[in-house]
UniProtKB/TrEMBL annotation:
SUPFAM superfamilies: beta-lactamase/transpeptidase-like. One of its GO terms (molecular function) is carboxypeptidase activity. Belongs to the peptidase S13 family. It comes from Shewanella japonica. This is D-alanyl-D-alanine carboxypeptidase. InterPro entries: Beta-lactam/transpept-like, Peptidase_S13. NCBIfam families: PBP4. It comes from the Bacteria. Keywords: Carboxypeptidase, Hydrolase, Protease.
Amino acid sequence: MILLLGLSLPVKANEYIDNMMKIISPAQSQIAVNIWDVSNGKTVYRINDQTLMLPASIQKVITAVAASKQLGKTFQYETSLTYDGAINDGTLNGNLYLHFQGDPTLKRAHLTTLINQLTELKISQISGDVTLIAHASNQTRAPGWAWDDLGICYAAPVSNFIIDRNCAKATLSPTEERSTVKVKSIYPINIKTTAEFDPTIPVKDAQMHFCELHMQRFDGNHYKIEGCYPGKKPIRLAIAVNNPKLYSQQVISDLLTQKGIQFTEVKTAENAPTTQTVIATHYSKPLPDLLKIMLQKSDNLIADSLLKQIGLSYFHQKKHKVNHHDDITQSARSDSFTLGARAIESIMLEIGLPFIEANITDGSGLSRYNLLTAQQMMSLLQFIKQDKDTQYIEQLLPVSGRSGTLKHKAYYNQPPLKNVVQAKTGTMMGVENLAGYITASNGKQYAFVIIENGLSAKAKKARLAPFSALFLQTLNDLPN
């Protein structure tokens, strides 16, 4: 339990918070706070709420609202298997097409189910081409993503070609000389290692001894692991696929071969002939289910895949115009983070939330170029409470001590904050944010935005408790 110094004299809510802030405000980091009373629609407290700061993953709430407005609850990703020509005596005298849409939840097992349909049609040979169809992805990583994150699965490239989250699993193990790396055969990647395990260094002292692993990425989904790892236990690796298009070609080639289907090669293209016969289609879960995963698990891949779909839908299907007077340039005709971010800004403006000073770069909050104010984020939380199309998003947020990223989070999985906070976390190096709703002990519900930037690792380790937890306990104890 968090222990705070209570105030015995009756005071107004904002005075109570002001007094407590003198005790709990962090000395080094920068904070911005905005609190809104849901019952009467009044602002209870604010500080630095007009200051632009790094949002991290609370930005996913913006993506959720924009996706609900633009794509709708019935939106699903589609992955289809089609062909042209004719099937005769076990041979497809024509071409086979597999249409990708950038489904962030598409798995190898789903593709296996699609390709099994070829066996049902008794196809054992394809005379023409096997072509994977998808819009070109000019940007698979957003501007402002940290360079040292790019080889890790939570920053996997966002392409229209996605299989198993564009994430390959491997195991790095010590040997008598140095180390060895084992990759399951289902992952068509190549990893070499010169890394060394040092059993004389405790894991907690690794940084002190400069014992760190490094990974180099090369063309053709080749990787090299170097450096040092403390201890002598094998470690699991989750490596982001560097070239999703090549990876998808190799996976589909492998699946066809496993089924004994003869073909020449697997190609890629942006378009397919207009006349085709559909063999089978795999559909993702509908948008609310995708948003639940995105918000509960803080799923970056779903967030940024949806950002791209928002951009394509807004500018292409609705035929909106860039800058309100110029047609979309040729360079923006494929999916991109720039197009998606521009669409979200336009959608926010159309629903009455002008994020004019904000800088939206991606849908996940991974980019260091994102900038938002606490007041802007609060306007979004207010919109969710009042808009019938997006009210359901509140119920998708993690609940303290019960679900998602708040289930096991320290200070939130115990009284007084357990079960009373429903909010989106936002954490990265130097950033620890929280935005959502709390039902206080006085019976009122408050919407809150707490942004903390400039938090060093040393300051984080030395503090009594996270500022957000201390502040929310203060909010929980507000007098009537």
